[in-house]
Design goal:
- The structure is a single chain.
- With 199 residues, the chain is α/β, with parallel strands linked by helices.
- It has one domain: Vaccinia Virus protein VP39 (Rossmann fold, 3-Layer(aba) Sandwich), CATH 3.40.50.
- Helices cover 36% and strands 22% of the residues.
- It is built from 6 helices and 7 strands; from the N terminus they run H-H-E-H-E-H-E-E-H-E-H-E-E.
- The protein has a 7-stranded mixed β-sheet with strand order 3-2-1-4-5-7-6, sandwiched between helices.
- The radius of gyration is 16 Å and the shape is globular.
- The structure holds S-adenosyl-L-homocysteine and magnesium ion.
- Magnesium ion (MG) binds next to loops.
- S-adenosyl-L-homocysteine binds next to helix 3 and strand 2.
């Protein structure tokens, strides 16, 4: 298992696949263990690195992970099999914005780690599948240190992307239903929790 993880890290490096940073994945794994998370939904599987580590972080945790890129999806399936985690990880090959999830399933943790420009859309769609006390965790909110500095970016594409992330952070900060905490861990992580009604 440890060797497979190292192999994945090397594969990601060689193929420029943005898997979670060490600190970030350690945070997720600890969160899952400490909060008895059972059902995880991940948006953006890539090669299955974070899905595999999340699924192995506790005995009863199950992960559904969505990936739209066929090459990554195939690689993910292969890695899940190699790790013997087929019964804990369900890999879905589809664009997350087009997926129809069963309305009966509630997730304790929804992990958003796909196209940065669509973060808000993912949040707005998948919040309805969150268990009452569940959390939505988002990765890459610092985006390699560019976030907060979009004014100084010259490349148009990069600037637009960073502006999208900045707008997503605003969206989280002003969200009436969710309370969000930001952590300076890995590439920047947020944890959003439903505000509890004070009655
Ligand atoms: N969570 C992974 C890394 C994911 S990288 C890890 O840490 O190991 C982001 C992935 O999201 C890419 O593989 C990309 O193809 C996928 N992606 C981007 N937009 C998507 C969408 N709308 N639906 C499904 N997958 C998407
Ligand atoms: Mg990421």
């Amino acid at each position: 298992m440890k060797e497979l993880i190292l192999e994945m890290e090397e594969y990601a490096k060689a193929h420029n696949i943005p898997i979670m940073q060490k600190e970030g994945i350690a945070f997720l794994m600890k969160y899952i263990k400490n909060n008895q998370i059972k059902n995880v939904l991940e948006i953006g599987s890539a090669i299955g690195y974070s899905a595999i580590l999340m699924a192995s972080s506790d005995k009863d945790v199950k992960v559904t992970t969505i990936e739209r890129d066929e090459v990554s999806y195939m690689e993910c399936l292969k890695n899940v099999k190699k790790c013997g985690l087929e019964n804990k990880i369900n890999v879905v090959f589809q664009d997350a914005l087009e997926v129809n999830l069963s309305e009966k399933t509630e997730y304790d943790l929804i992990f958003i780690d796909a196209a940065k420009a669509q973060y808000r859309k993912f949040f707005e769609k998948f919040q309805y599948f969150l268990a009452p006390k569940g959390v939505i965790i988002t990765d890459n909110l610092k985006f390699h240190g560019y976030v907060g500095k979009s004014d100084t970016i010259e490349s148009k594409n990069l600037k637009q992307l960073v502006e999208k992330i900045e707008a997503y952070i605003d969206f989280l900060n002003t969200n009436e239903e969710f309370e969000t905490k930001f952590y300076d861990i890995g590439d920047g992580i947020s944890v959003s929790m439903r505000k509890q009604n004070e009655k």
